[in-house]
Amino acid sequence: MNITRRDLLKTSIATAGGLMLPSVMRKAWAGEPGSDSSTVVLIRNRNLFAGDKPDPAVCRQMLDEALCRLTDKENAGQAWKSIVSADDTVGVKTNAWNKFPTPAVMEEILKEKVLATGVKEENFSINDRGVLNDPVFRRATALINIRPMRTHAWSGVGTLIKNYIMFSPKPSSYHDDSCAGLAALYDLPEVKGKTRLHILVMFTPQFHHTAPTQFSEEFTWRYNGLLLGFDPVAVDATGLKILESKRNEYFGEHRPLNPPAKHISAADTRFHLGNADPSKIHLIKLGWDETSYV
Amino acid sequence: MPTSIIGLLMMCSTIPSQHPVEQLPERFQSYRVSEPLNHTPDNLYEYINGAAEMYLSYGLAGMRGYRYTAENQPDVTIEIYEMTESRNAFGVYTQSRDRDEHAYGQGSLSYPEATLFWKDRYFIVISSSRATPESSAAIRFLAETADKAIPQEGKIPGIVGLLPAKGLADGGMLYFHHYIWLNAYFFIADFDLLNINEQTDAVLAKYGSPDRRTYLLLVEYPHEDATTAAYRRFMQRYAPEADNGKAVRLEDRTWFIGWHNGNRLGAIFNSPSEDDAEELFRAVISKM
Fold first, then answer.
1. Using one digit for the tens of pLDDT, what is the confidence trace for A153-201?
2. Which chain A residues have a beta carbon less than 8 Å from that of B127?
């Protein structure tokens, strides 16, 4: 996009306190006709954790309630059947980074929910790094994308958009310009048109890191939330806003992600994968609302 | 001095120093090696995927280390990133820390789950997925051992010495030579506005309190022509109304100064007042 801070100052979208999300640059610069708005559901529960682990019953209730709102269905059974049918072959793309993986309880609940729609067990798989060699993923008709949100040393944040990088036989080919072109992953034949649901796990998001492989609980907090949507860009943009707000609060000053999460705004403006512009995101908030940051 | 001793000394001076990983034990405390780590710049992706790019942007020579396991304890991993030059190890360190401790090497930072430090051309990360008394003790032991295994210290890039000490925030300095890090503290541009590459040295620093934060950028180019070209490009795009070394007030009521001097370019961003901007400018110029 080739934008400087001064460009933004001249259009009054940068302030002393910080910089608006790059996604809003679209309005100022691109002048493109926008697509319809995207719905994102944020659900939080103050009592999510039982001790140091998420309570499975609360996780299940949160996921069902959020999906009912997202699909506009009256009950969880109907909601799940509206996104997956018995004759589907379903791959759940998870994230297995050993220091901060998708919570196992969420993977177990997804399996339970998908199988309850009638999907056969042999037509169901959960995988991360092995998706290209997983026979279920190779013939998948439906994908569910799930991962926890965290800061990342090169892409700014680890997102739902980025979570599909393992569908590329050469992940490093997407690293140019701090991973700005990650949304192109959604055009890969293994992925295109198959994703039925995106879930960004915000139980304990990681809002900062030091060295790339370093993980510290000091930089996580109990947000106790899930973000669900059909548009990964809108879900990621909402998660990003939460992370950025937490960073600013923690550091006591505007503290941009380093490097910026260019791939989220580029997924909107360059790849037209979805909406990163907050004005085009219909956010439905359910449950605990204290310090939600959005 | 006998010829044979001179010959021996000359031979010693040309023998490459031992890699610090070779001085790490196979067993210590309740831990033992479960997996050696050995990656080149071409395959570090296989270990840390996109996070490898941060090291590559600073000039990585290779990474070696070990994963250690112990019964009923979290694994402890030591990653020794060998950079092409000590300035790059220093740069990775400034990228990775947000406060300075000096327990290990030439600068370190510790959390319950991790310790990182730099020394000579090495940047070292020792970490576990969670902290227990045993894993924390193992991390301390490996940090001490690796620190002792690196006999020399690295040189801090000269451009860092141009930063005025007064008002510099603790841990608020980043050394780099890849444009992607230009926005580490403050969004300046989403492209390479200043022709920053591996031939340049750049440092970004935070001054003042968080509510009156000012940012100072210094870039040293290989020669004056490159500086002049970068300065013209920068100022035409960022502040065409500004003269060399003169403060201008921007739309958000903050003050900006851009200048070039010999093979160096400087810029002060977000200063709350003209006086503050000029005071910082004078302090930098006096060190140039």
1. 888 999 999 999 999 998 878 887 788 899 999 999 999 999 999 999 9
2. 99, 211, 213-215
CB contact set of B184 (below 8 Å; sequence gap of 6+): A256, A258, A259, B95, B174, B176, B204
- Nearest to A264, CA basis, from A250, A275, A253: A275
Contacts of A1 in chain B (CB under 8 A): 190-191
Distance between A213 CA and the closest CA of chain B, angstroms: 7
Contacts of B182 by beta carbon, 8 Å cutoff, 6+ apart:
B176, B188, B189, B192, B193, B194, B196, B202, B204, B217
Longest CA–CA span in chain B (Å) reads: 73
Give, in order, the Cα–Cα distances in Å from B216 to each of A7, B173, B182, B219.
19, 9, 11, 10
| Domains, chain B, with CATH or none | 16-149 (3.40.1000), 158-287 (3.40.1000)
Dihedral through CA B135, CA B136, CA B140, CA B145, nearest 10? 0
Give φ, ψ of B136 to 5 degrees.
-65, -40
Closest by CA to A143, choosing from A71, A199, A181, is: A199
Instruction: Provide the shortest C-alpha distance from residue B106 to chain A (in Å).
Output: 16
How far apart CA B267 and CA B258 sit, in angstroms, is: 4
| Domains of chain A from N-terminus onward | 30-287 (3.40.50)
Chain A positions in Cβ-Cβ contact with residue B255 (cut-off 8 Å)? none
Q: Are A191 and A169 in contact (CB under 8 A)?
A: no
Smallest CA-to-CA distance from A23 within A238, A248, A284 is with A238
Residue B155: phi and psi, rounded to 5, are: -90, 135
The answer, yes or no, to whether residue B180 has pLDDT greater than 50, is: yes
Contact call for A258 and B51, based on CB within 8 A: no
> Does A173 contact B at CB distance below 8 Å?
no
Q: Which run of H or E residues covers position B284?
A: helix B274-287
Looking at residues B189-197, what average pLDDT do you find?
Answer: 92
Residue window 24-83, chain A: list those with CB within 8 Å of chain B.
none
Contact A79, A91 (CB under 8 A): no
Residue B286 is predicted with a pLDDT of 94
Q: What is the pLDDT of residue A217?
A: 85
Q: In Å, how far is A209's CA from the nearest CA of chain B?
A: 8
By C-alpha distance, which of A291, A269, A287, A156 is closest to A228? A287
A12 pLDDT band, cuts 50/70/90, is low
